[in-house]
Design brief:
single chain, mainly alpha, 5 helices, 88% helix
Length: 100
Amino acid sequence: MKLLLCVIAAEALTQLICKGEIFDPLREWLKGLSNFTSRLLSCPYCVSVWIAAFVTILYLFYEYSWIFVIGLVVHRVSNFVHDLFRVVQNYKIDQILNRN
């Protein structure tokens, strides 16, 4: 169970860092530091390796880090549920429009 929580938390944090608008200024500044950081932050797969290591170490070795991990998991699962509801809602709308 810990592994699954760490996987979901790492994925959530990776998406926030690589694509979150709130991190745009920091991400652009870091990309400007070197070619390595620019290439790293342009690749979610590359970032996820480092994020996964960070999340795993944090979760395994720091007592209250589970609060951070659980927060990321709740964030990611809520996004998934939101997307699922949107798909169902769009399906229902399509069904209604196709009947008329």
